[in-house]
What we know:
Elements: H1 2-13, E1 20-25, H2 29-44, E2 48-49, E3 58-63, H3 68-87, E4 92-97, H4 103-112, E5 118-120, H5 128-138, E6 142-144, E7 164-168, E8 170-171, H6 182-186, E9 190-191, H7 194-206, E10 211-215, H8 232-240, E11 247-251, H9 260-268, E12 275-277, H10 285-290, H11 297-310, E13 315-322, H12 329-342, E14 346-351, H13 369-390, E15 398-406, E16 412-417, E17 422-426, E18 436-444, E19 449-453
Parallel strand pairs: 1-2, 1-3, 3-4, 4-5, 5-6, 7-10, 10-11, 12-13, 13-14, 17-19
Antiparallel strand pairs: 8-9, 15-16, 15-18, 16-17, 18-19
Helix pairs in contact: 1-5, 8-9, 9-11, 12-13
Iron/sulfur cluster (SF4) binds at residues 173, 175-177, 180, 182-183, 217-218, 254.
Amino acid sequence: MSNYKEKVAEILGRSEAPPLCFVHSFGCQQNVSDGERILGILSEMGYGVTSDINSASLIIYNTCAVRENAENRVYGLVGELKHMKEQRPDLIIGLCGCMAQEEKTVQKVKSTYKQVDLIFGTHALSELPRLLYDVLTTRKFVCDTEEHSEPEKEINAVRSSSFKASVPIMYGCDNFCSYCIVPYVRGREKSRVPEAIIREVRELSEKGYKEIMLLGQNVNSYGKNLDRPINFAELLRRINEIKGDFKIRFMSPHPKDCTNELIDTIFECDKVCKHLHLPLQSGSDEILKKMNRRYTAEKYMEIVDHARSKDPGFSLTTDIIVGFPNETYDDFLKTLEIVKKVKYDNIYSFIYSKRTGTKAAEMTDMTSDEDKSKWMTELLQTQREISTEHYKRFLGRTLDVLFDGESRHEGMLSGKSDEFIIVEAPCSDKSIIGQRKKVKITKAYNWALCGEIV
Ligand code: SF4
């Protein structure tokens, strides 16, 4: 591949000023992390990076396929580039990411969006130099959605932050939850070798990064396809051994593979943040079965109880889908019951969105949209009441907070505590951004905490 990198660099080198690329990523953290790796590949070939789309000679939309409206938005943006392409025929327009991995997207683009020069799928990131070379030398439409399975390649990411970094540990998903398109566009689970992950984290630590987010569609089934398998808990322990002043987070675990060993490891490892995002989706076993989640509400609560047996105030967050096809109010009440029992610090909730190509999309749905939005309102109201009380447990405590920006409140900085809770503090010194500070909590709201830097 380095050969194509050199060839592209040679072509680009002929232009007076280094050409600029504009890469915009939609969707989940894994896709954003892929976007950073795409920028890494392009920079190695001589592209500069711009956030001004009008000055770019290469535009790439790194797409998301999780919901239909995400796709429509991309088609809208690509449509808007038609005129720009007519003005600048040398402009290269590319699509990648989950939406680009779908054959229906390729056909639609080929027939309707002729301004697009390049499509590459979720398994073809490292093929980008070859694909770009083909576009630059032939000026013909180039597409690659093959499942390339060469061994791991070290790709230097151009990261959007100098203190928080995402490190993918695996790609793909074998779970086939009935509402989810990810397994169809990201393929089967493939774990990166631990040595490569540890090398990447060590380099980030040496560069002074303060927070490492380990990424995977289902991190706790890490390692199954490795020649010398290790599980996720073992990987966490090894990363915890790396020297440096950084903390570890991970996204997303799946309750069906969540073990007491993993929970114990979170508590044993000083660098692992004391927070777990554990997607529930529904509290009804009937609905969980239809979702093909392969755990029950009881199994889910066993995980919660084990974590809370180690720390009654242990921070949990979750994902919830409201209004799955044919969900009844009784099913919904079972979800509400778990929400009241667990006392999450935050929930990420969505009204079910039909996704063509998934099993759930074929299910008839008698549940009315009116009921679904009524239940969503009830869920959010319940959660507001819970977090109003639950956040009070932090009053008077001192938390470790990584400040990551200015608050919308004048003179305040904002960050996240190890418990993954928003914390704001009065501070005019912006150099604090990117640093972890101790904050004494003085106020608790239902969405954030407030305190003094000590
Ligand atoms: S675990 Fe389920 S919801 Fe998550 S990516 Fe895999 S199939 Fe989708």
